[in-house]
Amino acid sequence: MREGRVIRAIGGFFDVFDDGHIRRCRARGVFKVKGTTVLVGDFVRYEPVGAQEGIIREVLPRRTELVRPPIANVDHVVVACSFVTPDLSFYMLDKTLLQVSVAGVEPTIVFTKADLVEQAESDAAVDTYRRVGYEAVAVSVRQGEGLDRLRWRLKGHVTVLAGPSGAGKSTLANALAPGISFKTGEVSEKIGRGRQTTRHVELVRLDDATWLADAPGFSQLHVYVASREVKFHFREFLPWAQRCTYRDCLHLDEDGCSVKSAVEEGRIPASRYMSYKQLYEEAREQELNAY
Ligand SMILES: Nc1nc2c(ncn2[C@@H]2O[C@H](COP(=O)(O)OP(=O)(O)OP(=O)(O)O)[C@@H](O)[C@H]2O)c(=O)[nH]1
Ligand SMILES: [Mg+2]
Ligand SMILES: [Zn+2]
Fold this sequence. Notes:
Layout: E1 2-10, E2 13-18, E3 21-27, H1 30-34, E4 43-49, E5 53-59, E6 65-66, E7 71-72, E8 76-82, H2 90-102, E9 106-112, H3 119-132, E10 135-138, H4 147-154, E11 158-162, H5 169-176, E12 202-207, E13 210-214, H6 238-241, H7 258-264, H8 270-289
Parallel strand pairs: 3-5, 8-9, 8-11, 9-10, 11-13
Antiparallel strand pairs: 1-2, 1-4, 2-3, 4-5, 6-7, 12-13
Helix pairs in contact: 2-8
This protein binds guanosine-5'-triphosphate, magnesium ion and zinc ion.
């Protein structure tokens, strides 16, 4: 039995990378029975069959697992969002950050298509998130802006590109991974929404320790998190939350809430607080619907 890393999953086959070779493998039916699935990024035990093929017998324990995009064992997510087509949505960005935080993975926020907006708008978005404590960078593949900084961030990590369809993930992957050519697509100007050019998650090796996955974009995202825990994923709340009157303050309507004061004083970005309230409500609704 040998071990390898799943780099691609297409039509019931899994391409497994092992020591420089790629084998096309099938997973044995036993996985379905047990409810286990094979994800791109999984480390698997497989039996070689001939020179090119194999059978996956076992999925090794995952260190991390994301739902959107579906991928295992990444330790870094590039959350890509474009300034335009599709238009920037801080709510979608914050929701994606929530998902990534719940999965225990570190994000880098990448604002794409910076060539299509004024410098001031681009700076403001980057500043907002750096102030909050995230690594954030504005890039333009068209003008080659921000790419070096991002390349440096990828080094030594297994990274996946996440974000809405049409944000420019595949375009970015192509710029970051020389010699690779992921399919990219025009965004329909009329609806300002992507139509999912990328269909599969695919992991490519940049060097021994550095991997990058392109993935399909999404328009919807469900985050499974307890409503009481949403606040812990808004990292900029934490220093203020210690000063709230109530220990279990949810920063909603409570008296003596330091987080709300910080929002009013402009120390926490208002857009982040609005996202928090909405994501809290959504988590609350999920809980209520579960009973
Ligand atoms: N002006 C400009 N356009 C860009 C830039 N990056 C990407 N685009 C355009 O954005 C469109 C969508 O790019 P893709 O890379 O296919 O987007 P994607 O995020 O991979 O989309 P899905 O695969 O559907 O999730 C294409 O028309 C790209 O040419 C950029 O830096 N500047
Ligand atoms: Mg794509
Ligand atoms: Zn509070």
